[in-house]
Amino acid sequence: MADVARVAGVSHQTVSRVLNEHPNVRTETRARVLAAIGQLGYRRNLVARALVTRHSRTLGVVSFDSTLYGPASTVYGIQQAARNAGYFVSIVGLRSIDRAGMRDALDYLAEQGVDGIVVVAPQRSAARALADLPAGIPVVAVEGDHHGDVSVVSVDQAEGARQATEHLLGLGHETVWHVSGPSDWMEAEGRIVGWREVLTAHGRAVPEILPGDWSPRSGYQAGRRLAGMDEVTAVFVANDQMALGVLRAFAEAGVEVPGRVSVVGFDDIPEAEFFSPPLTTVRQDFGAVGRHSIELLLRRIEAGPDAPRERLVASPLFKVRASSAPARG
């Protein structure tokens, strides 16, 4: 820092203010210091900085199964938001989130001195595992249990399902069948709740749920069953990958979409608009989830141990494409 100060023609304290982004530095002075830093190849010692400030400028993220579109996109949104806020991210990926795995992940991140932790916790088992939180570290859960003691950021899953079901009923379909996600996932539960609420409110029959596991194969298996049922004219599928499997099964069985059956998915994966036909679906704004998560976590870091529990909910967006159409008369 002394070398930078000498080259820039400023004091050691001015260099320190620039590095710490202090607002009371003139623009031209800041530019001169940054130019000197670049000329000398100066690199900040983040370990030393953390010892002095007691803040590592690093946030921890605990997630699992990054091959699934939803969790992977959520983690990416968190990373981008953290970077924009000037933080590094340390990620621990787990095959499944249980109490033992969660405890090990949280201990590992605590030992790294992270300032706070975001846990992507869409499963009931993950929400239960949040009972063993390390003392003194702010934690925010994404898609977690809203009834616990941890602050939560989520997408309104029930509202997305309501939009999908209302859309299909509005097209003249008598009822809507549902291919669900795994029973342990709170997202799947929320989508069932929204779907059932709309059918009940309209006085329509609530068909048997066909369970899936988020994979195209499970959607394909459900689609083969649905293809043999003449009364089926509309299907709401709990994610786009399963909807792809449903569309494949219908195509093999000669069931026209949307001629005979309309299909709606959930997530709006990048490939959804290129399905055959392009998929009507519910878009989750994972960028907003990431921003909300980091904003909430930084508030908790700033407020300290007495920070109030908060819940932030992002709204879904309904995307109409060619896989849904009015029911045949």
Automatic annotation (TrEMBL):
Q: What residue stretches are annotated with the HTH lacI-type domain?
A: 1-53
Q: One Pfam match, by short name?
A: LacI
One Gene Ontology MF term:
DNA binding
- InterPro entries reported in the protein's UniProt record: HTH_LacI (IPR000843), LacI/GalR-like_sensor (IPR046335), Lambda_DNA-bd_dom_sf (IPR010982), Peripla_BP_I (IPR028082)
CDD domains in the cross-refs: HTH_LacI, PBP1_LacI
Instruction: Write the record's keywords in alphabetical order, separated by commas.
Output: DNA-binding, Transcription, Transcription regulation
Q: Give the protein name, as stated in the record.
A: LacI family DNA-binding transcriptional regulator
Q: Which source organism?
A: Planomonospora corallina
